[in-house]
Backbone:
């Protein structure tokens, strides 16, 4: 019994390796699969035969450029094997995307998020309606949806699809698996948004330079402050985390934060904090739940024209971010910092404060400033992070369920 179980586990692991290689590199020939997975030709033949029989992958033929000789046979995911729904929750809206098993986007739409006082209750109703809408638009059978992948800023449970705290709904917990049953019996996963950004950045870095990625931090600037860390732990293996950076202490007894504490980094660097500082509003004023980007644009314009308090608000935000990063890097290791989010449009106003805050760290004074990169396409990174995570979960579930 033990031998049989061990053999099955090895077969499953090898099948996942084959599917992961196809995810990473696209359509591959038999010999390429063997090279990328380090599996024998006979093992590749057995696995691809099983996957093809189960209609998980399919063959395609590619004629040689010269037009002579036998066509090259390649394997790729079968697009209609199943489908994924991606739900991205932001401060002002929700985006729904339908993706096939090969990772191809089929349909997408966005809806504004209601700022109704009932908060989470009304939001859950809207999410149910949004999921039904994207399913009806595609005319795909419900049982073909293999997974629903959801993301939000805030604190998420490590082992359940539960949003424990968020800048949008505060301490109103949302158990997405509970509220979407029984209409959606498929698997539901939930991730912190900036964790997905870090994962996508790590995957890009490793694809461009397989030996170059050691560790990387993603800092998201906007209505709230998010942070994700990715570390390479082995060939093709990464450890990803999202510490509660925005609510780390910056100033004891300082400005009131949306989380209810005082002195958090976000209470000085979030959009509402910059607004509060620029207009010299008392720091114990209850923070605005949502600040339109257009309002921050006006403050930024005044700052660039020399308005003292507007410029000071952005600089103080930068100092809070820099202080937080200096403490983080002192506890972890020196690594590049990729700055993303809507707040990147104000980086020229934040940069001096960020560098000033970082310079207060002994490590930075000894080793110099970490590399600071500006990455503007955060929304694309969030979506890439969803695909990387969700499709690998689907692959693993398919293999563990048995290939028939």
Residues:
């Amino acid at each position: 019994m033990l031998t049989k179980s061990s053999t099955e586990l090895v077969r499953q692991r090898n099948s996942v390796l084959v599917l992961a290689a196809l995810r990473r590199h696209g359509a591959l020939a038999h010999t390429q699969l063997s090279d990328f997975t380090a599996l024998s030709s006979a093992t590749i033949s057995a696995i691809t035969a099983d996957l093809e029989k189960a209609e998980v992958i399919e063959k395609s033929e590619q004629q040689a450029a010269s037009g002579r000789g036998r066509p090259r046979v390649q394997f790729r995911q079968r697009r209609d094997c199943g489908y994924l729904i991606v739900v991205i929750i932001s401060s002002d809206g929700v985006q729904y995307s339908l993706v096939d098993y090969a990772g191809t986007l089929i349909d997408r739409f966005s809806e504004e998020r209601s700022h109704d006082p009932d908060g989470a209750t009304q939001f859950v109703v809207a999410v149910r309606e949004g999921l039904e809408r994207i399913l009806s638009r595609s005319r795909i059978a419900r049982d073909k949806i293999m997974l629903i992948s959801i993301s939000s800023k805030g604190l998420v449970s490590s082992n359940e699809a539960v949003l424990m705290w968020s800048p949008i709904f505060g301490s109103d917990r949302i158990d997405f698996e509970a509220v979407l049953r029984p209409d959606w019996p498929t698997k539901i996963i939930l991730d912190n948004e900036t964790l997905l950004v870090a994962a996508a950045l790590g995957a890009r870095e490793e694809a461009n330079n397989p030996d170059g990625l050691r560790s990387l931090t993603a800092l998201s600037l906007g209505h709230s402050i998010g942070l994700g860390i990715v570390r390479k732990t082995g060939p093709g293996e990464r450890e990803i985390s999202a510490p509660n950076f925005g609510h780390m202490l910056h100033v004891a007894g300082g400005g009131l934060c949306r989380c209810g504490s005082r002195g958090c980094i976000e209470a000085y660097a979030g959009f509402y904090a910059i607004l509060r500082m620029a207009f010299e509003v008392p720091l114990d004023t209850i923070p605005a739940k949502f600040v339109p980007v257009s309002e921050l644009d006006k403050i930024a314009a005044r700052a660039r024209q020399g308005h003292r308090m507007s410029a000071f608000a952005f600089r103080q935000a930068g100092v809070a971010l820099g202080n937080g990063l200096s403490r983080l890097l002192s506890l972890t290791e020196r690594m590049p910092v990729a700055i993303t989010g809507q707040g990147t449009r104000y980086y020229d106003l934040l940069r001096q404060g960020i560098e000033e805050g970082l310079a207060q760290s002994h490590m930075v004074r000894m080793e110099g400033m970490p590399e600071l990169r500006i990455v503007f396409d955060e929304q694309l990174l969030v979506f890439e992070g969803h695909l990387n995570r969700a499709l690998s979960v689907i692959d693993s579930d398919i293999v563990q369920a048995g290939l028939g």
In short: Residues 44 and 131 are 38 Å apart (CA to CA). The chain has a mean pLDDT of 91. The chain is about 45% helix and 20% strand. The two ends are 20 Å apart (CA to CA).
